[in-house]
Amino acid sequence: MAREAVRAGQDPAGAQRHQQEDRQAQG
Q1: At residue 11, what are phi and psi to the nearest 5 degrees?
Q2: What integer pLDDT is reported at residue 19 of this predicted model?
Q3: Radius of gyration of the chain (CA)
Q4: 1-27, pLDDT tens digit by residue?
Q5: Residue 19 is inside which H or E element, if any?
Q6: What count of other Cβ atoms lies within 10 Å of the Cβ of residue 8?
Q7: Rounded to whole angstroms, what are the CA distances from 3 to 8, 12, 18, 26?
Q8: Is the Cβ–Cβ distance between 8 and 15 less than 8 Å?
Q9: Please, which residues have CB within 8 angstroms of residue 19's CB and are 6 or more apart in sequence?
Q10: 3-class DSSP state for residue 1?
Q11: Is 16 in a helix, a strand, or coil?
């Protein structure tokens, strides 16, 4: 989850998209 926090700081607009992509990759 730490990566998501860093991404949110760098790209708050795309953070949500990245979260969904990460979910698919893990699932």
Answers
A1: -140, 80
A2: 74
A3: 8
A4: 566 656 556 666 666 776 777 777 765
A5: helix 12-26
A6: 15
A7: 9, 13, 10, 14
A8: yes
A9: 4
A10: coil
A11: helix
Residue that the structure tokens 């926090």 belong to: 5
What 8-state DSSP symbol labels residue 11? -
Q: Confirm if 25 and 10 have CB atoms less than 8 A apart.
A: no
Indicate left, alpha or beta for 8 from its phi (over 0: left) and psi (-120 to 50: alpha). Answer: alpha
- Residue 14 tokens read as 């795309």
SS3 27: coil
pTM higher than 0.85, yes or no? no
Amino acid occupying residue 6 = V
In Å, the largest CA–CA distance within the chain is: 25
